[in-house]
Structures are given as C-alpha cells and as structure tokens.
C-alpha cells in the first residue's frame, strides 16, 4: 500500500478508517468496491470523516488508488 495512504489510515486522521479495524470498515465494505473506489478517487465527505480526492495526492493514478483500497479492504475483513 502507498505510504501516502498510511499518513491518514494508520492513525485515523480526519475519520479515516484505520487499517485492520474490521468494525469500522464493515459498513464501508458493504457499500461495494465500486463505491469505495469512487470515494477514494473522487473524494468523499460523510458523517464519519473526510476523504480528499486521491488522498490529497493528485499525482496518483486511478489504478494505484484502487490497488490501495483493495489492499486495505483485504486487510480489514
């Protein structure tokens, strides 16, 4: 997973779900991978936190973001 992602997902910055916290990831995973990819790529603001587009790293391509999301989901189930 990208180091960029861990800047927030290791500590839960701005409501980011922490890696391996299955209880926090469960309702997000239930929305489906396409929704998670869309939120990570385009950004999302919800009641539990904020995800800037591509985690604030505009130079990441969509496939890199999707790979990071897939990794976090896999590690959090």
Order of helices and strands: HHHEEH
How many structural domains does the protein architecture include?
A: 1
For the biggest sheet, the summary is: 2 strands, antiparallel
Q: How many E strands?
A: 2
Number of helices in the DSSP assignment: 4
- Uncertain spans, ≥5 residues at pLDDT below 50? none
Spatially, the strands of the biggest sheet line up as 1-2
Question: In CATH terms, what is the fold-level topology?
Answer: Cytochrome Bc1 Complex, Chain D, domain 2
Spatial separation of the terminal alpha carbons: 16 Å
Return the average pLDDT rounded to an integer.
94
The CATH architecture designation is Orthogonal Bundle
- Assembly state: single chain
Q: Supply the CATH class.
A: Mainly Alpha
Which superfamily, in CATH terms, is the homologous superfamily?
Cytochrome c-like domain
Give a verbal description of the structure:
- The protein is built from four helices and two strands.
- It has a single domain (3-75), classed as Cytochrome Bc1 Complex, Chain D, domain 2 (Orthogonal Bundle), CATH 1.10.760.10.
- The mean pLDDT is 94.
- The longest helix is centred in the C-terminal third of the chain and has 14 residues, at 62-75.
- 19% of the residues are buried.
- With 77 residues, the chain is mainly alpha-helical.
């Amino acid at each position: 997973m990208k180091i960029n992602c861990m800047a927030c997902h290791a500590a839960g910055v701005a409501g980011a779900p922490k890696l391996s916290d299955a209880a926090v990831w469960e309702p997000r995973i239930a929305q489906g991978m396409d929704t998670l990819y869309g939120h990570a790529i385009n950004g999302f603001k919800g009641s539990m936190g904020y995800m800037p587009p591509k985690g604030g790293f505009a130079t990441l391509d969509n496939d890199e973001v999707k790979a990071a999301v897939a990794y976090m989901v896999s590690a959090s189930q």
